[in-house]
Amino acid sequence: MISGLFLFIIVIAVLTIIISIIIVKNNIYIPTFSGAIAVAFGIMINGAFQQEHFLKRLIGPYAVYLLISVLIIIVLSNLNELRSKKYYLSHHFSDEIHTFATGTYVIAFFTVTLSIVKELGNILILAYILFIAGCVIYLLYLFISVKNYKAIWQENYSKKILMYNLNGVILLISVATSYVVIDGSLLLGKFFRGSADNILLILSALFYFAGLYMIIRNYIKYKYKIMDNWKIGNVIVHGAISTFGLACVIAGFSSNINGLVWIAALLLFIIVEIYEIIFMIKRIKYYGVDKGVLTYSTNQWARNFTFGMFLAFSIMFKIKDSVYYKINLLDFIYNLIFSYGKYFVIGFFIVELIVFAYNINRLNKPKIYEGDA
Protein backbone atom coordinates (compact mmCIF):
# COMPACT_ATOMS: atom_id res chain seq x y z
CA MET A 1 0.00 0.00 0.00
CA ILE A 2 1.34 3.42 -0.98
CA SER A 3 1.87 5.68 2.02
CA GLY A 4 0.41 9.18 2.16
CA LEU A 5 3.90 10.73 2.32
CA PHE A 6 5.10 8.81 -0.76
CA LEU A 7 2.01 9.87 -2.70
CA PHE A 8 2.57 13.47 -1.59
CA ILE A 9 6.19 13.34 -2.81
CA ILE A 10 5.02 12.11 -6.23
CA VAL A 11 2.42 14.90 -6.49
CA ILE A 12 4.96 17.55 -5.43
CA ALA A 13 7.54 16.19 -7.89
CA VAL A 14 5.04 16.35 -10.76
CA LEU A 15 3.96 19.89 -9.83
CA THR A 16 7.60 20.98 -9.53
CA ILE A 17 8.33 19.66 -13.03
CA ILE A 18 5.24 21.38 -14.47
CA ILE A 19 6.04 24.71 -12.80
CA SER A 20 9.68 24.46 -13.89
CA ILE A 21 8.66 23.83 -17.51
CA ILE A 22 6.33 26.85 -17.39
CA ILE A 23 9.13 29.02 -15.96
CA VAL A 24 11.63 27.99 -18.63
CA LYS A 25 9.15 28.08 -21.52
CA ASN A 26 7.78 31.51 -20.63
CA ASN A 27 11.07 32.96 -19.32
CA ILE A 28 9.51 33.85 -15.98
CA TYR A 29 12.03 35.68 -13.82
CA ILE A 30 11.57 35.89 -10.07
CA PRO A 31 12.47 38.86 -7.83
CA THR A 32 15.87 38.79 -6.16
CA PHE A 33 14.36 38.56 -2.69
CA SER A 34 12.40 35.38 -3.58
CA GLY A 35 14.85 33.27 -1.61
CA ALA A 36 13.30 34.84 1.49
CA ILE A 37 10.14 32.78 0.84
CA ALA A 38 12.08 29.54 1.30
CA VAL A 39 13.93 31.00 4.29
CA ALA A 40 10.70 32.08 6.02
CA PHE A 41 9.08 28.70 5.36
CA GLY A 42 12.18 26.83 6.52
CA ILE A 43 12.64 28.75 9.75
CA MET A 44 8.97 28.12 10.61
CA ILE A 45 9.65 24.39 10.20
CA ASN A 46 12.88 24.60 12.21
CA GLY A 47 11.40 26.75 14.95
CA ALA A 48 7.65 26.78 15.50
CA PHE A 49 7.07 23.24 14.18
CA GLN A 50 9.74 21.82 16.47
CA GLN A 51 7.93 23.24 19.47
CA GLU A 52 4.44 22.25 18.35
CA HIS A 53 4.74 18.45 18.35
CA PHE A 54 1.33 17.95 16.74
CA LEU A 55 2.39 19.95 13.66
CA LYS A 56 5.84 18.36 13.63
CA ARG A 57 4.38 14.87 13.60
CA LEU A 58 1.43 15.59 11.31
CA ILE A 59 2.89 17.79 8.57
CA GLY A 60 6.61 18.26 9.36
CA PRO A 61 8.00 15.87 6.69
CA TYR A 62 5.39 17.03 4.13
CA ALA A 63 6.41 20.64 4.73
CA VAL A 64 10.10 19.86 4.17
CA TYR A 65 9.44 18.13 0.84
CA LEU A 66 7.37 21.15 -0.19
CA LEU A 67 10.25 23.40 0.90
CA ILE A 68 12.68 21.36 -1.21
CA SER A 69 10.34 21.88 -4.16
CA VAL A 70 10.34 25.66 -3.59
CA LEU A 71 14.16 25.67 -3.54
CA ILE A 72 14.30 23.66 -6.78
CA ILE A 73 11.97 26.13 -8.51
CA ILE A 74 14.05 29.09 -7.30
CA VAL A 75 17.28 27.49 -8.48
CA LEU A 76 15.85 26.55 -11.89
CA SER A 77 14.50 30.07 -12.37
CA ASN A 78 17.96 31.50 -11.70
CA LEU A 79 19.64 28.99 -14.01
CA ASN A 80 17.14 29.90 -16.71
CA GLU A 81 17.94 33.58 -16.25
CA LEU A 82 21.65 32.85 -16.57
CA ARG A 83 21.06 32.00 -20.23
CA SER A 84 20.90 35.75 -20.62
CA LYS A 85 23.92 36.72 -18.55
CA LYS A 86 23.56 40.43 -19.23
CA TYR A 87 19.95 40.46 -18.01
CA TYR A 88 20.79 38.30 -14.99
CA LEU A 89 23.49 40.69 -13.85
CA SER A 90 21.29 43.76 -14.35
CA HIS A 91 18.38 42.05 -12.59
CA HIS A 92 20.11 40.73 -9.46
CA PHE A 93 23.32 42.78 -9.33
CA SER A 94 22.02 46.18 -10.38
CA ASP A 95 23.72 48.08 -7.55
CA GLU A 96 25.71 47.58 -4.36
CA ILE A 97 22.69 47.41 -2.06
CA HIS A 98 20.34 45.33 -4.19
CA THR A 99 23.10 42.76 -4.67
CA PHE A 100 22.92 41.85 -0.99
CA ALA A 101 19.40 40.49 -1.56
CA THR A 102 20.97 37.55 -3.43
CA GLY A 103 22.02 36.39 0.03
CA THR A 104 18.49 35.03 0.45
CA TYR A 105 19.42 32.32 -2.08
CA VAL A 106 22.49 31.37 -0.06
CA ILE A 107 20.52 31.28 3.18
CA ALA A 108 17.74 29.29 1.48
CA PHE A 109 20.22 26.44 0.81
CA PHE A 110 21.29 26.41 4.46
CA THR A 111 17.70 26.66 5.74
CA VAL A 112 16.57 23.70 3.63
CA THR A 113 19.63 21.77 4.81
CA LEU A 114 18.68 22.44 8.42
CA SER A 115 15.06 21.43 7.77
CA ILE A 116 16.19 18.08 6.34
CA VAL A 117 18.38 17.46 9.38
CA LYS A 118 15.43 18.24 11.68
CA GLU A 119 12.75 16.23 9.85
CA LEU A 120 14.21 13.82 7.29
CA GLY A 121 17.08 11.90 8.84
CA ASN A 122 16.71 9.17 6.23
CA ILE A 123 17.97 11.44 3.42
CA LEU A 124 20.88 13.13 5.17
CA ILE A 125 22.96 12.68 2.02
CA LEU A 126 20.80 15.40 0.43
CA ALA A 127 21.53 17.65 3.41
CA TYR A 128 25.29 17.22 2.86
CA ILE A 129 24.91 17.96 -0.87
CA LEU A 130 22.90 21.13 -0.20
CA PHE A 131 25.34 22.21 2.51
CA ILE A 132 28.31 21.88 0.13
CA ALA A 133 26.40 23.75 -2.60
CA GLY A 134 25.46 26.43 -0.08
CA CYS A 135 29.10 26.84 0.98
CA VAL A 136 30.20 27.27 -2.64
CA ILE A 137 27.73 30.05 -3.39
CA TYR A 138 28.40 31.51 0.07
CA LEU A 139 32.07 32.01 -0.87
CA LEU A 140 30.99 33.87 -4.02
CA TYR A 141 28.55 35.94 -1.98
CA LEU A 142 31.25 36.62 0.62
CA PHE A 143 33.61 37.97 -2.05
CA ILE A 144 30.92 40.26 -3.50
CA SER A 145 29.79 41.41 -0.04
CA VAL A 146 33.29 42.38 1.09
CA LYS A 147 33.70 44.41 -2.08
CA ASN A 148 30.34 46.14 -1.54
CA TYR A 149 30.97 46.75 2.16
CA LYS A 150 34.15 48.57 1.19
CA ALA A 151 32.24 50.72 -1.32
CA ILE A 152 29.50 51.55 1.20
CA TRP A 153 32.02 52.23 3.99
CA GLN A 154 33.84 54.71 1.76
CA GLU A 155 30.51 56.03 0.42
CA ASN A 156 31.77 55.25 -3.06
CA TYR A 157 28.40 54.23 -4.53
CA SER A 158 27.74 53.75 -8.21
CA LYS A 159 24.69 55.96 -7.70
CA LYS A 160 24.63 58.54 -4.95
CA ILE A 161 20.86 58.10 -4.51
CA LEU A 162 21.59 54.65 -3.06
CA MET A 163 22.74 56.36 0.11
CA TYR A 164 19.06 56.92 0.88
CA ASN A 165 18.25 53.23 0.29
CA LEU A 166 20.78 51.68 2.64
CA ASN A 167 18.98 49.28 4.97
CA GLY A 168 19.24 46.02 6.89
CA VAL A 169 19.52 43.95 3.71
CA ILE A 170 23.29 44.49 3.85
CA LEU A 171 23.32 42.39 7.05
CA LEU A 172 22.36 39.26 5.10
CA ILE A 173 26.06 38.45 4.78
CA SER A 174 26.18 38.24 8.58
CA VAL A 175 23.13 35.95 8.54
CA ALA A 176 24.66 33.71 5.86
CA THR A 177 27.93 33.43 7.81
CA SER A 178 26.08 32.45 10.99
CA TYR A 179 24.14 29.83 9.02
CA VAL A 180 27.40 28.19 7.91
CA VAL A 181 28.16 27.72 11.61
CA ILE A 182 24.68 26.35 12.38
CA ASP A 183 24.64 23.79 9.57
CA GLY A 184 28.33 22.98 9.78
CA SER A 185 28.13 22.26 13.53
CA LEU A 186 25.07 20.02 13.13
CA LEU A 187 26.34 18.09 10.10
CA LEU A 188 30.07 17.87 10.82
CA GLY A 189 30.07 17.95 14.63
CA LYS A 190 33.48 17.93 16.29
CA PHE A 191 35.22 18.15 12.90
CA PHE A 192 33.77 21.62 12.50
CA ARG A 193 33.48 22.94 16.03
CA GLY A 194 36.38 24.84 17.51
CA SER A 195 38.52 27.01 15.28
CA ALA A 196 36.22 26.97 12.23
CA ASP A 197 33.02 28.03 13.97
CA ASN A 198 34.80 30.58 16.18
CA ILE A 199 36.42 32.25 13.17
CA LEU A 200 33.11 32.33 11.29
CA LEU A 201 31.26 33.74 14.30
CA ILE A 202 33.85 36.51 14.64
CA LEU A 203 33.45 37.23 10.92
CA SER A 204 29.65 37.28 11.29
CA ALA A 205 29.91 39.72 14.22
CA LEU A 206 32.28 41.99 12.26
CA PHE A 207 29.90 42.09 9.30
CA TYR A 208 27.00 42.83 11.65
CA PHE A 209 28.60 45.71 13.54
CA ALA A 210 30.13 47.22 10.40
CA GLY A 211 26.78 47.02 8.59
CA LEU A 212 24.82 48.40 11.52
CA TYR A 213 27.28 51.29 11.86
CA MET A 214 26.87 52.19 8.18
CA ILE A 215 23.07 52.05 8.39
CA ILE A 216 22.96 54.30 11.48
CA ARG A 217 25.57 56.64 9.95
CA ASN A 218 23.44 57.11 6.86
CA TYR A 219 20.24 57.67 8.83
CA ILE A 220 21.96 60.42 10.79
CA LYS A 221 23.99 61.95 7.98
CA TYR A 222 21.23 62.07 5.37
CA LYS A 223 18.39 62.81 7.82
CA TYR A 224 16.15 59.97 6.69
CA LYS A 225 12.40 60.39 6.98
CA ILE A 226 10.61 57.24 8.09
CA MET A 227 7.86 57.63 5.49
CA ASP A 228 10.30 58.01 2.62
CA ASN A 229 13.30 55.95 3.62
CA TRP A 230 12.30 53.21 6.08
CA LYS A 231 12.65 49.77 4.46
CA ILE A 232 11.28 46.37 5.40
CA GLY A 233 14.85 45.13 5.09
CA ASN A 234 15.55 46.84 8.42
CA VAL A 235 13.87 43.96 10.25
CA ILE A 236 17.06 42.03 9.43
CA VAL A 237 18.74 44.23 12.07
CA HIS A 238 17.20 42.02 14.76
CA GLY A 239 16.97 38.91 12.54
CA ALA A 240 20.74 38.88 12.02
CA ILE A 241 21.53 39.07 15.73
CA SER A 242 19.01 36.26 16.41
CA THR A 243 20.73 34.08 13.79
CA PHE A 244 24.09 34.88 15.36
CA GLY A 245 22.68 33.94 18.76
CA LEU A 246 21.34 30.61 17.49
CA ALA A 247 24.78 29.89 16.00
CA CYS A 248 26.40 30.67 19.36
CA VAL A 249 24.06 28.22 21.14
CA ILE A 250 24.74 25.44 18.62
CA ALA A 251 28.48 26.16 18.73
CA GLY A 252 28.38 25.51 22.48
CA PHE A 253 28.92 28.97 23.95
CA SER A 254 28.07 29.47 27.62
CA SER A 255 24.46 30.25 28.59
CA ASN A 256 25.46 33.61 30.05
CA ILE A 257 27.08 34.72 26.77
CA ASN A 258 24.08 33.44 24.81
CA GLY A 259 21.87 35.32 27.26
CA LEU A 260 23.60 38.62 26.47
CA VAL A 261 23.03 38.03 22.75
CA TRP A 262 19.38 37.14 23.44
CA ILE A 263 18.85 40.37 25.41
CA ALA A 264 20.44 42.36 22.56
CA ALA A 265 18.15 40.58 20.06
CA LEU A 266 15.12 41.32 22.25
CA LEU A 267 15.95 45.03 22.55
CA LEU A 268 16.61 45.40 18.83
CA PHE A 269 13.43 43.47 18.08
CA ILE A 270 11.40 45.94 20.17
CA ILE A 271 13.09 49.05 18.71
CA VAL A 272 12.83 47.97 15.07
CA GLU A 273 9.26 46.71 15.36
CA ILE A 274 8.17 49.98 16.99
CA TYR A 275 9.48 51.72 13.87
CA GLU A 276 7.67 49.14 11.74
CA ILE A 277 4.38 49.93 13.51
CA ILE A 278 4.92 53.68 13.04
CA PHE A 279 5.75 53.03 9.38
CA MET A 280 2.56 50.97 8.96
CA ILE A 281 0.37 53.64 10.59
CA LYS A 282 1.83 56.35 8.36
CA ARG A 283 1.33 54.22 5.25
CA ILE A 284 -2.29 53.53 6.15
CA LYS A 285 -2.85 57.24 6.73
CA TYR A 286 -1.20 58.18 3.41
CA TYR A 287 -2.22 55.32 1.08
CA GLY A 288 -5.11 53.61 2.84
CA VAL A 289 -5.27 50.00 4.03
CA ASP A 290 -5.30 48.35 0.61
CA LYS A 291 -2.25 50.05 -0.93
CA GLY A 292 -0.50 50.85 2.33
CA VAL A 293 -0.54 47.41 3.98
CA LEU A 294 -2.12 44.77 1.74
CA THR A 295 0.10 45.28 -1.31
CA TYR A 296 2.43 42.29 -1.74
CA SER A 297 6.20 42.38 -2.17
CA THR A 298 8.64 39.48 -1.84
CA ASN A 299 10.77 41.33 0.70
CA GLN A 300 7.87 41.09 3.17
CA TRP A 301 8.97 37.49 3.79
CA ALA A 302 12.02 38.93 5.55
CA ARG A 303 9.70 39.84 8.39
CA ASN A 304 8.48 36.25 8.68
CA PHE A 305 12.06 35.01 8.67
CA THR A 306 13.23 37.41 11.37
CA PHE A 307 10.27 36.68 13.65
CA GLY A 308 10.78 32.95 13.16
CA MET A 309 14.50 33.21 13.81
CA PHE A 310 13.97 35.10 17.06
CA LEU A 311 11.62 32.32 18.17
CA ALA A 312 14.08 29.60 17.10
CA PHE A 313 16.86 31.33 19.06
CA SER A 314 14.60 31.69 22.09
CA ILE A 315 13.67 27.99 21.95
CA MET A 316 17.31 26.85 21.81
CA PHE A 317 18.49 29.30 24.45
CA LYS A 318 17.37 28.15 27.91
CA ILE A 319 17.11 31.18 30.18
CA LYS A 320 16.94 28.92 33.25
CA ASP A 321 20.54 27.89 32.56
CA SER A 322 21.75 31.48 32.74
CA VAL A 323 21.89 34.14 35.44
CA TYR A 324 19.27 36.22 33.62
CA TYR A 325 16.28 34.18 34.81
CA LYS A 326 16.71 35.97 38.14
CA ILE A 327 15.56 39.17 36.42
CA ASN A 328 11.79 38.79 36.68
CA LEU A 329 10.93 40.93 33.65
CA LEU A 330 13.32 39.01 31.36
CA ASP A 331 12.08 35.68 32.69
CA PHE A 332 8.46 36.74 32.08
CA ILE A 333 9.16 37.94 28.52
CA TYR A 334 11.14 34.79 27.73
CA ASN A 335 8.37 32.49 28.93
CA LEU A 336 5.81 34.52 27.02
CA ILE A 337 7.79 34.11 23.79
CA PHE A 338 8.53 30.45 24.49
CA SER A 339 4.87 29.64 25.18
CA TYR A 340 3.06 31.71 22.54
CA GLY A 341 5.64 32.75 19.94
CA LYS A 342 4.99 29.65 17.79
CA TYR A 343 1.35 30.65 17.25
CA PHE A 344 2.37 34.16 16.26
CA VAL A 345 4.98 32.92 13.74
CA ILE A 346 2.61 30.39 12.15
CA GLY A 347 -0.22 32.92 12.10
CA PHE A 348 2.02 35.55 10.50
CA PHE A 349 3.03 33.05 7.81
CA ILE A 350 -0.63 32.37 7.02
CA VAL A 351 -1.34 36.12 6.85
CA GLU A 352 1.48 36.58 4.33
CA LEU A 353 0.05 33.78 2.20
CA ILE A 354 -3.33 35.53 2.30
CA VAL A 355 -1.74 38.84 1.23
CA PHE A 356 -0.03 36.99 -1.63
CA ALA A 357 -3.34 35.42 -2.73
CA TYR A 358 -5.09 38.79 -2.45
CA ASN A 359 -2.54 40.33 -4.83
CA ILE A 360 -2.14 37.44 -7.24
CA ASN A 361 -3.99 39.20 -10.04
CA ARG A 362 -1.75 42.25 -9.85
CA LEU A 363 1.69 40.80 -9.11
CA ASN A 364 3.09 42.00 -12.43
CA LYS A 365 1.68 45.49 -12.07
CA PRO A 366 3.64 48.45 -10.65
CA LYS A 367 3.62 48.56 -6.85
CA ILE A 368 3.40 51.51 -4.52
CA TYR A 369 5.23 49.39 -1.99
CA GLU A 370 9.00 49.43 -1.79
CA GLY A 371 11.09 47.48 -4.24
CA ASP A 372 12.97 44.24 -3.83
CA ALA A 373 15.57 45.43 -1.41
Q: What can you see in these coordinates?
A:
It is a single chain. The relative contact order is 0.11. The chain is built from 14 helices and no strands. It has a single domain (8-362), classed as Voltage-dependent anion channel (Glycosyltransferase, Alpha/alpha barrel), CATH 1.50.10. It has helices at 4-26, 35-46, 48-51, 53-81, 85-92, 103-119, 124-153, 172-188, 195-221, 226-229, 236-251, 255-292, 301-316, 328-358. The model is unreliable at 365-372 (pLDDT under 50). Helices cover 73% and strands 0% of the residues.
List keywords for this structure.
373 residues, mainly alpha
If you compute it from the alpha carbons, what radius of gyration comes out, rounded to the nearest whole angstrom?
20 Å
Looking at the structure, what is the overall shape? globular
Distance between the first and last residues' Cα: 48 Å
Using DSSP, what is the number of strands?
0
User: Sheet with the most strands?
Assistant: none
CATH domain class: Mainly Alpha
The CATH homologous superfamily is called Voltage-dependent anion channel
Roughly what is the average pLDDT, rounded to an integer?
A: 87
Assembly state: single chain
**How many domains, as an integer?**
1
Considering DSSP H and I runs of 4 or more, what fraction of the residues is helical? over 70%
Extract low-pLDDT stretches: 365-372
